[in-house]
Amino acid sequence: MRTALVIGTGLIGTSAALALAGRGVQVHLSDHDPAQARTAAARGAGTDQPPEGRVDLAIVAVPPAHVARTLHEAVQGGVARAYLDVASVKGGPRRELEALGCDLTAYLGTHPMAGREKSGPLAATADLFEGRPWVLTPTAGTDTEVLNLALELVALCRAVPVVMDADAHDRAVALVSHTPQLVSSLVAARLRDADETAVRLCGQGIRDVTRIAASDPRMWVDILSANPGPVADVLAGVAADLDETVRALRALEAADDGKRRDGAAGIEDVLRRGNAGRARVPGKHGAAPAVYESVTVLIGDQPGELARIFADAGRAGVNIEDVRIEHATGQQAGLIQLMVEPGAVAGLTATLRDRGWAVRH
Q1: Residue 326 confidence class, pLDDT cut points 50, 70, 90
Q2: In this structure, what DSSP letter does residue 175 have?
Q3: Whether 92 contacts 108, CB under 8 Å
Q4: Are residue 225 and residue 322 in the same domain, yes or no?
Q5: Are residues 132 and 110 in the same domain?
Q6: Are residues 234 and 307 in the same domain?
Q7: pLDDT band for position 134 (50/70/90)?
Q8: Helix%, strand%, coil% for the chain, nearest 5
Q9: Reported pTM
Q10: Nearest to residue 51, comparing CAs of 69, 87, 77, 86?
Q11: Are strands 55-60 and 160-163 parallel, antiparallel or unpaired?
């Protein structure tokens, strides 16, 4: 791949353009808002000038509702040898393209499983896709050259290719991406009118659950409008579980011992099913989930503190597998949880204490 055209310079389009430009590909940028394309170009993602001839690959990075029309116009204009989109739903756009009579041999639907709460070219980064799954949905009619160019794009962005059927992909992202967004927003919405005293008690649990609720509502309306059925199916199951959980909690309020036992059993059931589901989430580097233990340390909110604790962990010969930070409300301090292999806990704890850290049990 020597040349590429990125149509749509939001977070995903600009991030792909930055990755390609950084690896020597001549990237041309196009957007319905020329100012956004200029911003992406100013960040080093390519040029906002149109290509003089056909490019090797056209990447359509527009909201799902506009994918088919944008792709059809690009194919009709003959702007590239191969075309792909990066929208978060795949079945609908393909069927719309078929209805428009578009030749799909030169097209491949793809979806990089990466993103941020922020949007637009200023939020883009060249490493957004590194190590992340990038779904490809070829059909029997997909030209081999198109598939090879898509694989080259994935490699240049340092992502991991995953081949799936388009409709299977849409059902999967409904479960692992679209429904979590709505559930996070539903929980966060409870905070809008909550008493200030309650809000000040927010800890790491509520921060974890509501992190993605900060996402752009307009963007998510576009995404959910393109995949409503599968998302509604998942939410119907969640709603059924919620109904059962509410009944179990009400039973715990009952005076009857038998009802309280039934209520406790119902709560335990949903919690255990949650344990089982969480255990299936891939762990580090996509491997089976590992069991880590945490070493919790009080850390000040000053420059260099994180670097110092990581350096001290290195002196102990311990690899930090994951990190979580819980900030203390109204204080210039917090608790950092260093996730390590169980056998490393004693050595790390001893070293950190020797180095003056306040290790908490």
Answers
A1: confident
A2: I
A3: no
A4: no
A5: yes
A6: no
A7: very high
A8: 50, 15, 30
A9: 0.77
A10: 77
A11: unpaired
Please identify, among 278, 311, 345, the residue that sits at the C-terminal boundary of a domain: 278
Distances (CA, A) of 150 to 90, 108, 144: 15, 8, 10
- 87 lies in the same domain as 154: yes
| Mean pLDDT, residues 5-10 | 97
Query: Cα(270)–Cα(260) distance, rounded to whole angstroms?
Result: 16
Q: Is residue 288 part of a domain?
A: no
DSSP 342: G
Tell me what pLDDT residue 256 has.
Answer: 92
Identify the domain boundary among 246, 278, 310: 278
**What's the CA gap between 199 and 146, in Å, rounded?**
51
Using CA atoms, how far residue 32 sits from 85, 192, 214, in Å, is: 16, 34, 25
> What's the mean pLDDT in 252-258?
93
Number of domains in the chain: 3
**Residue 40 belongs to a domain with what CATH number?**
3.40.50.720
pLDDT in tens, 272-294: 999 999 888 876 655 555 678 88
